[in-house]
Specification:
Elements: E1 2-10, E2 13-19, H1 29-40, E3 50-55, E4 62-68, E5 73-74, H2 78-92, E6 96-101, E7 104-115, E8 118-128, E9 144-148, E10 157-162, E11 166-171, H3 177-187, E12 199-207, E13 210-217, E14 221-223, H4 227-240, E15 249-253, E16 256-263, E17 271-278, E18 280-289, E19 298-306, H5 308-321
Length: 325
C-alpha cells in the first residue's frame, strides 16, 4: 500500500502527519499500531516521536488521533495538534478551526507574528485537572502539589496534574537529563502509583515570565519537547507563585521555545491553558508498506517535496533562543 505523509515538528517534537481525509487507511487497531511502530523507528523506519492521523468527524473541522512511537495512543498532543491544526487551517481557509481529540474539542488558530518565516499556531490545552484520579494516580489526597515521592526521588517535589495527558512536574535549580531519564523510567516501569504511566518533567524558572522545561515522555522517552508538559509545568509554576496565571510565559526547551498561558478556572476547577508555537512542515513523502511482513513492513520511502525555507527559518528561530536551550 502507498501512503502520502508530511514530516513535521513542533519545538523539535517530530511527527508524521497522515491525512486520512484524502487517503483513508483501511486498518484495524492492531494494524494501525504496527504501522506506527514501523514508521517511527529511527533505525529502519522514517523516524519520529509519533504519528498524527488527520480524520473527519461530525460537528468539527477535523479529528486528531495521536500515537506515540511505541504504538500507544495518547489523549492529546500539544505540539502535534498545532501541526495538524495548521493542515486543517490550510484546507478550510478559515482563521480558526475546531479539532476533536480524545477528551473533547479544542480550537486552533494561526499566529502571524511568532517569528519571521516560522508558521505558528495557538491551541487550547485542557481540561487541566489537579485530581490525581484523572491521571490516573493512586494517591490518598485530593491533589499533589509540591509533594515528595520517595520511590522516585529523594529530593524532587512533584506536582501532579492532567492536561489532559498525565503529568508530574518538579521545580529544580539545574536540569540533569540523566536523572530525568532515570526517574521517567521508574515512573513508567509498572510503578504502583501510575498504572497507565506518566510524563515526567523538570522545570527551571528563568525569570518572571520565562521557564525552561525538559520532559521524559510516556511512550517516547526523553524528547526535545512536549506541548502538554510545557503547559502543565507552567501551570505548576503558577501554583508555586513563581509565575502568574493569565500571563504569557516564554517556555524554552531543547527544541526551541513556545508561549504558554496558564488559565485558572476558579473553584469550579475548569482550568485550561493556551499554547502557541511553531508548526513546521519539513518535507512531504510517500511510503510503501506491507504489514504482512512483520519484520520490516516498510518497502520504500520517497521524498516528494522539501520545505527548505521552513527548515531554515526555524533554525534561525532556534539560534535566536540562544543559551536558554
Amino acid at each position: 500500500m502507498e501512503l502520502p505523509f508530511i514530516k513535521c515538528h513542533g519545538s523539535g517534537n517530530d511527527f508524521l502527519l497522515i491525512d486520512e481525509m484524502e487517503h483513508p487507511l483501511v486498518l484495524d487497531e492492531a494494524g494501525r499500531r504496527a504501522l506506527v511502530i514501523a514508521l517511527c523507528r529511527r533505525d529502519t523506519g522514517i523516524g519520529a516521536d509519533g504519528v498524527l492521523f488527520h480524520q473527519s468527524a461530525p460537528g468539527v473541522d477535523a479529528r486528531m488521533r495521536i500515537f506515540n512511537a511505541d504504538g500507544s495512543e495518547a489523549r492529546m498532543c500539544g505540539n502535534g495538534i498545532r501541526c495538524l491544526g495548521r493542515l486543517t487551517l490550510e484546507k478550510t481557509g478559515r482563521p480558526e478551526v475546531a479539532i476533536a481529540v480524545m477528551n473533547g474539542v479544542l480550537r486552533v488558530r494561526q499566529v502571524t507574528d511568532f517569528f519571521p518565516g516560522v508558521v505558528a499556531c495557538e491551541t487550547e490545552i485542557g481540561p487541566i485537572s489537579l485530581d490525581p484520579a484523572t491521571l490516573p494516580m493512586v494517591w490518598s489526597g485530593d491533589k499533589v502539589v509540591g509533594e515528595g515521592i520517595p520511590s522516585l526521588s529523594a529530593t524532587w517535589r512533584f506536582t501532579a496534574l492532567s492536561a489532559p495527558n498525565p503529568h508530574l512536574s518538579a521545580m529544580v535549580e539545574e536540569i540533569d537529563r540523566e536523572d530525568l531519564v532515570r526517574v521517567g523510567r521508574l515512573a513508567n516501569g509498572d510503578h504502583p502509583l501510575f498504572p497507565d504511566g506518566v510524563n515526567v518533567s523538570l522545570r527551571r524558572v528563568l525569570g518572571a515570565d520565562a521557564l525552561f522545561v525538559a520532559t521524559y515522555e510516556r511512550g517516547v522517552g526523553w524528547t526535545h519537547s512536549c506541548g502538554t508538559a510545557m503547559t502543565a509545568s507552567t501551570f505548576a509554576a503558577c501554583l508555586d507563585g513563581a509565575l502568574s496565571f493569565g500571563q504569557p510565559v516564554r517556555v524554552f526547551n531543547a527544541g526551541g521555545q513556545v508561549i504558554c498561558t496558564a488559565l485558572w478556572g476558579g473553584e469550579t476547577g475548569a482550568h485550561s491553558g493556551l499554547l502557541a508555537g511553531n508548526a513546521t512542515f519539513e518535507w512531504d513523502g510517500v511510503v510503501q508498506f506491507d504489514l504482512s511482513d512483520g519484520l520490516n513492513p516498510l518497502r520504500r520511502v520517497q521524498r516528494i517535496r522539501d520545505r527548505d525555507d521552513e527548515i531554515r527559518a526555524y533554525e534561525r528561530f532556534k539560534g535566536a533562543c540562544g543559551e536558554n536551550q
